[in-house]
Amino acid sequence: MSWRKTDIEHLRMEFIWIARETETSKAETCRKFGISRKTGYKWLRRYQTEGLPGLAIRTCRPLTSPLGASGAVVTAICRLRNKHQSWGPKKLRVLLAREGFRPTELPSLVTIGRILARSGLSVAKRRGRPRQWPQTTPLNDAPGPNDVWTVDFKGWWRTGDGKRCEPLTVRDLYSRYILCLRPMKRSRSKDVRKVFEELFERYGLPKVIRSDNGGPFASLTAPYGLTRLSAWWLTLGIKPDRIEPGHPQQNGGHERMHRDIANEIARQPAPTWDEEKVRLEQWRIEYDLQRPHEALGMKTPGAVYHCSARRLHPAVPYAYPVTFGRYRVRENGCIRVGGKDVYLSQALTGLEVGVERLSTTGWRIWFCDLTIRESDPKPETQQLPALPMIPETVEMCNLCPDNKVLPMS
């Protein structure tokens, strides 16, 4: 024997059929069905006014919700989400306040998330973060703007015309302000230096520039990993700062910005390379001046960043001590010390180095405040004093206590 399957609507219909009998007690029928008399009379009234449709299940949602989001707010949230597809509830709530909605009209972050989910505009959840490796090399802190700039090349993609787009990105670590987002046709030191000359003219000089260990920012063979670009930074008083190889999480803020570029720009490339360049610049302006940042208290990077007081001046030679010899590195990366060619690095071509004399045969070569090379000084041969001539009338056995030769008496 199978169980009889009944739903709530059939139970209500059965209650109505029994309760409508003239000789049946309505209170007894309510107790039989396990409901209150108030509920029973409610079903009877609905059946009398609406018929069988009145017994259908109705929602318990209130007719009015004073704290609910209005239609204008929901429309604005969907419009802003379609415009900024990677922005979450926190940033969308700030944009709603900018558009003039009163604080009492602003929904909570949970409500905005629910509105996005019901509208089909929520982003799929990402996988968990990978395991963080411990940092062994201390990196410079950024207590204020222009203390540390970060630089890197965004992974390349092809535009609609088949050209390769590889943007150079420069960002202030403290304010998250993007200083440069420019696609480069070549990643040579000469081309990147022109971009930094423009940045230094516009924003001033930072104290530190942090990069990875790839070119043209670092070299695996040159002393201290110097390249022509990073050597030029040193002459301007800018210290190069590099993360550990294979640890991009040490420059995590910059990589996070690259992910936004990949989601909003690279995923749907422009038809031409020139149009992509314009899109990147518009995205940079929006990121700096419109996009609120959670780490900045939902302020924009442009509201926190200010230009550096250190300005770019004409090249001034590094002030080595007066006791140092000054040599200019030739095109082959060598200088001539003591009549011999000493190889330093072609990254220092055209720059001055200082030579510190350690001894008559030893020296140490400095580039700014870095020791580039140091010779192995040969031990100096000591000249022994000549022995006095011993006359024939002197006997070797007659010696005084201080080992002086005395004549015979």
Description:
With 409 residues, this protein is of the alpha+beta class. The protein has 4 domains: 48 residues; 48 residues, Arc Repressor Mutant, subunit A; 157 residues, 2-Layer Sandwich (Nucleotidyltransferase, domain 5), CATH 3.30.420; 50 residues, no CATH class. Strands 1, 2, 3, 4, 5 and 6 form a 6-stranded mixed beta sheet that branches. Strand 8 and strand 9 form a beta hairpin. The longest helix has 17 residues. The protein is rod-shaped and about 130 Å long. It starts with 7 loop residues before the first helix and ends in a 35-residue tail after the last strand. 22% of the residues are buried.
* Through-space gap between termini: 150 Å
**Class by alpha and beta content:** alpha+beta
Question: Kindly state the mean pLDDT as a whole number?
Answer: 82
* CATH class descriptor of the largest domain: Alpha Beta
Query: How many strands, which pairing sense, and closed or not: the largest β-sheet?
Result: 6 strands, mixed
CATH topology of the largest domain: Nucleotidyltransferase, domain 5
> What letter string, H or E per element, gives the SSE order?
HHHHHHEEEEHEHEHHHEEEEEE
- Helical residue percent band: 25-40%
Shape: rod-shaped
Number of domains: 4
CATH superfamily of the largest domain: Ribonuclease H-like superfamily/Ribonuclease H
| CATH 2nd-level architecture of the largest domain | 2-Layer Sandwich
Give the beta-strand count. 12
DSSP helix count?
11
Radius of gyration from CA coordinates: 41 Å
Sheet-strand content, in percent, reads 5-15%
Low-confidence stretches: 1-5, 131-136, 380-409
